[in-house]
Amino acid sequence: MRMSRLAVATTAVLAAALAAGCSSGGGSTGTASSAEPAAPGSAGPVNLTYWTWAPNMDKVVAVWNAKNPDIQVTISKQAGGDDAAAKFLTAAKAGNPPDLVQAEYQMLPSFVAADAVADIKAETAAIKGEFSPGIWGLVTLGTEGVYAVPQDSGPMMLYYRQDLFDKYGIEVPKTWDEYAEAARTVREKDPKVFLGTFSSKDPGSFAGLAQQAGAQWWSISGQSWKVAINDPATVKVADYWGNLVKEGVIDDQPYFTPEWNKALNDGTLLTWPSAVWGPGVLSSNAPKGKGKWAIAPLPQWSAGENHSGFWGGSSTAVSEKSPHRAAAVKFATWLNTDPEALGLLVREAAIYPAATKGGTLLGDTPEYFENQPDFWEQATRIAATARGFTFGPNVNVAYSAFKDAFDKAVQDKSSFSAALAAMQEATVADMRKAGFQLAR
Amino acid sequence: MSTLSTRRTPAPYLFLAPAVLLFGLFLAIPIGYTVYLSLRGTKVSGLGLGKGARQEVFTGLDNYAAAIGDGELWAGWLRVLGYGTLVLVVMLGLALLFALLLDSAHVRLARFSRIAIFLPFAVPGVAATLLWGFLYLPSLSPIRQVLDVDLLGSGTVVLSMANVAVWGGVGFNMLVLYTALRAVPRDYYEAARLDGASEVQIALRIKIPILIPAIILTTVFSIIATVQVFTEPTTLRPLTNTISSTWSPLMKVYRDAFVTGDIYSAAATSIVIAAISLVLSFGFLRVVRDRAFGEG
């Protein structure tokens, strides 16, 4: 009797302990399922988990699952952005990562440096030709390995309020000088309206603008890294925006806030230098602007030039610890190179495919841009002018430093190039502390 | 072996086992692991790409030296000190005031008021902060249409954050104090009234002295809570550029662990924070014990 009561008590305690254990680990749901996969070669389908934040990816995956009963993919929807990268790195360190993960290009080097994603060079040799060398470089990091299959890219362009440009009598700026001039004109015509805003919360956007100017934040020479975040090209970009903010002709509120949405909606913000994925953001954050926005190439640093940069864009990577590497690469290959999958990605997930043949699948103009029937032709032309740079192994540190330094610079109206120098310093200090070989 | 013995039965250990097990699983082991992590770090060789380029190594007290030597951490403590003083004084002051008012003889709608004051405590911190965040934003806020102050500016953002904490915290503390007041025998008040004491005098001379232990308790809890401030600044951060990623010490831990991916220094900083908050709470307890009760 006594023993049995004890047994009951012990069981209850264990159950409580387990329940508590589960709830304390609840922050990373959907990670456990990949831990007990069927052994390769054994009967029963292979189950893959895939972390992604692209909208409607479940519909795309459903098509694959219907056709491939032996490789079943389960989506785990992520929040996206820096949090998703941190979560993946944590899961990889804890030993229970998903088999496949959506990896932004700038985060891929951190994943590789943490040994969290697999080198899939052998499995992807056949599809290298599907991508432009510039895009492919983003998944090789300029090394011998291949660490992901490119999915989409984010060439930058200028989104502007066509109707209000007409109202205020402004021409679409061809150079950044013209853009600054237009910013002043707008303030004179209506002191409530801004031509644009500088966001100190979006290092990705700033990186794209720096790429346009020809920056090379990281580069590899031999066995060492060279970090040049405050190179002359980027200093030029930083000071340009810094001066406009100080002059008060450009707003300084961050992107993606309720405040910003309101400004996009009510016509008090006239432009947004953004990437090809902009229509999705605009249609959900500024529904009232439908049919009023248009795109043009980014303003240039010198007349006659024709450059753009990248903001965002991501790839599909396979976890180093995934027991089903071959199956995972097979799915990633289908997802990002098969015409049917690319068509689905364009239609359902509203992404701009990285694969070269994706350009022909773009189809109809986004509904939001009904006023600009040649939206995709424009976008494809602009995309061809975009140039990127190699991302380093601690982009997370650099981006975090960007936010803190530029927040402060915006707030104090102090020098943006000094903020840039702080960003460079924090990035180099972190790499030095970790033991990376640095040039010079 | 299993002979009948009244002295050496396993029963006490079995009864202890659940507590020890739970303590070990959820307190001792995590703390031990944090200490272990805080003594380690990663070492990268060459480019840091490819297999085995990154190794976990023992670094001794390096992480602690870096944590203690980091000016940002101490600047964070200063900010939290200012914020905490503000929250403690206003929140506990209001809680005490409300508890006394609700307990006074002439109050009406006591039940309704009690629930109304308590209700904000039931709103999760993130929701409360978002709610207030929207009220602070210049073009969305009804407050801003009346009052021309930047509620998220570099000087005012602390007040705005403290406001959220006070709004959410007054109810709980009021309830603790109020419950303590209800336990006081009514005879004391009657005696005081017979002696000609006014309600205010009763409050100042009888109720507050009796409440001292409860006030100390709520103060200790509030000190611990404000030292750990994280939700309010983290939730408000995307809305303004006046809150840095290391505004409070815990935010720095979060940034190190999950943004820049250095769990080792995050572990060391956590332990430094835990030590400081321990010193603060026990220090406070010691001071008030000496003052209020004259004990050694």
The strand count of chain A comes to: 10
Strand order of the largest sheet of chain B: 1-2
Q: What's the N-to-C terminus distance of chain B?
A: 50 Å
Q: How helical, in percent, are the residues of chain A?
A: 40-55%
Q: Please provide the ordered H/E string of secondary-structure elements of chain B.
A: HEEHHHHHHHHHHH
Radius of gyration of CA atoms of chain B, rounded to a whole number = 25 Å
Strand content of chain A: 5-15%
Tally of individual helices of chain B: 12
Name the shape of chain A in a single word.
globular
CATH class label of the largest domain in chain A: Alpha Beta
Domain module tally of chain A: 2
> Got a strand count of chain B?
2
Brief rundown of the structure:
The complex is a heterodimer of chains A (440) and B (296). With 440 residues, chain A is of the alpha+beta class.
Report on this structure.
Chain B: Residues 77-284 form the ABC transmembrane type-1 domain. Chain B: It comes from Thermocatellispora tengchongensis. Chain B: It is found in: Cell membrane. The complex is a heterodimer of chains A (440) and B (296). Chain A is of the alpha+beta class. Chain A has two domains: 43-153 and 313-362, Periplasmic binding protein-like II (D-Maltodextrin-Binding Protein, domain 2, 3-Layer(aba) Sandwich), CATH 3.40.190.10; 156-310 and 384-434, D-Maltodextrin-Binding Protein, domain 2, CATH 3.40.190.10. Helix content of chain A is 45%, strand content 11%. Chain A has 17 helices and ten strands. In chain A, the strands form three sheets. Chain A has a five-stranded mixed β-sheet, with helices on both faces. In chain A, β1 (46-52), α2 (57-67) and β2 form a beta-alpha-beta unit. By secondary structure, chain B is mainly alpha-helical. Chain B has a domain at 80-237: MetI-like fold (Orthogonal Bundle), CATH 1.10.3720. Chain B has a two-stranded antiparallel sheet. Chain B starts with 10 loop residues before the first helix and ends with a helix. The chains are: A alpha+beta (440), B mainly alpha (296). The interface between A and B is large, with 57 and 40 residues.
